[in-house]
Give the backbone structure.
Amino acid sequence: MENPFLNNYSETTDAELVSAALDGNKAALEQLVVRHQQFIYNVAWRMVLNPQDAEDVTQEVLIKIITRLGQFKGKSEFRTWLYRIVVNHILNMKKRPLETLVTDFEEYGDTLDNMPDEALSEEEALTLRETIEEVKISCMAGMLLCLDRPQRLVYILGELFEIDHKIGSEILEISPDNFRQRLSRARKDLYNFMQNKCGLVNKENPCRCRKKTKGFIAAGFVDPNNLRFNANYIKRIYQVVPEKMDQYCETVDDYYAQLYGEHPYQIPPSAGKLVEEILNDGKIKVLFNLN
C-alpha cells in the first residue's frame, strides 16, 4: 500500500480507479476506498484517540469523499483533493469526548503529577510489559490532545507521516512557510512539555511509564485486558515512512519524532465491515449505478 503523503506517491492508480468508479465499477470504488482508508483512520485516530470515534470519523469522511467524487475535475492532484476533505472535516467536526477531557499541557501535567508512582517487581513488569507499552503510547498520544486541532493536525501530517511541506500546504491551503511555522510551533510546545515532564527524553524527570502503570490502570485510562493503543497493528509508523528513519537522531527534534514514530500504525478494527457498509449504502449504489 502506497503512502499518499510521500513525494514519490503515484497518482496514476488513483486516477484510473476514480474513472472506473464513476463508470459504475464497484471493484474500483472498493479499491479506492481501501487504498486510503488506513491513512485516513490513522490521522483520525491520533486526532481523537479512541478507536470507535476514529472509525466513525473515517466513515463520515469516506462517505463525503465518495459522494463528491464526481466533483473532482483533476485541477489538483487527487490526493490533495481527497485529503483537503479529510482535513476540513476533522477541523470542523464536533469535539470527541477525549478532546474535551484533555485541554492543555498544564492540566495534563498536573494529572500526571497527581497520579501515584508505584514500583513494579521484575515479575510484575514482565507480566505487564505490553500494558507498560500501552501506558507509554497512550500517555504520549494524550500529549497530542494538548495541542489545538490545527497544531495537532500539522504535527501528525508533518512530523509523524513526514509529509512534504509543499504537499502539506496544498492540502491545508496555506503557504509552505506557514505550514513550516505551524509545525515548528507545534514541535516547540510539545517538546518543551516532554523535556520538562517526560522521563523518556530527560532522565532527570521523575515521571516513568513503568511507575505510572498501576495508576493508569486504577484511573481507568488503561485496561490490561483490552489494549486500545498497543493493539490492532502490523507495522510501526516509521515503517510506513521509511525515508525518515535514516535521518533519526541527527537532531534533538529527530529523537522526539522517533519516539512517536515507534507508535503503532493502526488497522481499523472493523475495516472490512466499514467498506461493506459504505458500498452497500442505498444512496451510493444509486449514485454510482452499482449492482
Remarks:
- The two ends are 27 Å apart (CA to CA).
